[in-house]
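Raw record, unedited: Exo-alpha-sialidase
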Amino acid sequence: MPKDGVLRSTGKGTAEAILPTPHIVNHAPSLIELHNGDLLMVWFAGDTEEGRSDIRIVQSRLAKGETRWTDPVAISEDPVRSEQNPVLFQKKDGGLLLLHTAQAPREDKKEKYDPATNVDAATRQETSEIRSRLSLDNGYTWEPTQTFSETPGSFCRAPIAELSNGDWIFPMWISRRDGNTVFGNDTSLVRISGDEGRTWQEVPIPGSRGRVHPNIIEWGEGRLSAFFRSRSADWIYVSRSDDWGRSWTEPERTTLPNNNASIRAIKLQSGRLAVIYNHFQAGDDSAATIWPKTRFPVSIALSEDEGRTWPYIRQLEQGDGFTGEANKHLNRTYEYPWLFQANDGLIHAAYAYGNRQAMKHVVLTEQWITG
């Protein structure tokens, strides 16, 4: 498929586009439908590698009624820090809020690479803070950057969720450098605001060591679920709250595998729960920290009972298909998938494509998933 950003029908009930990009590294997409009907995608991009000071937040737009994504433009502005993991939230008044991380640049990889864990311990995520920018014109221009969370190690991957009582709830985690386990002791929390972001209270999620990237879903008034990535590369986990997020149960495993990579969980208009993820796991020890290189296939699972069972699972991206020890290194990564449902009912997915060389956008229906 050409990397020209043109959305084309596949003839199989879906449409796809690979977004144009001049950058070597493209990762961690987030996608939103704006109030004016445009789609806006943000991700981090650069020409070296994740964690370096050239990594910036970029955005691309698919205007309502158009079929081609625009070329990406940078929308973050720190020349020193590595800016990563952007998410978007549009307020009722139309103001568009961008949140992203900003960390000290990583050190020399050759000096800090740990062969025992196969992870570069110099990513310096423990130095990160979360920053924000506001746009009053649907992302065409942005106000000056503000600091949202200055706690060292602050990281995000899911947007603010607006609850039925008007509260805003923002899921995040604290990244901790911890020797050979390498960020295995990360823990999650939520920030809650009752005044549309002017003030916030923090609520830790108990027992969340190694459970990160929480995604918040409201099922009824004040009844919430949070679905997590696992540093143990074992399963997707879930925690629940019955009091608008003021207290949480300890995360428990679901029956969906996780490869210690990002997931996205949303509630569909039908009432079903949808999760997009890499259907792969590398262990079953909930206390371990494992970093497998496998980040494929991209799968979508549907649940009709709030994540307790998953009667529908379908592969959206199968990957390159190389098997055997001698060939498995040839498989590229298809990772950090995103999912949302537009007002017209169509489901939109995005993920870093083919070893982070570009962003891929896929449009599908719920009926395509159920077959």
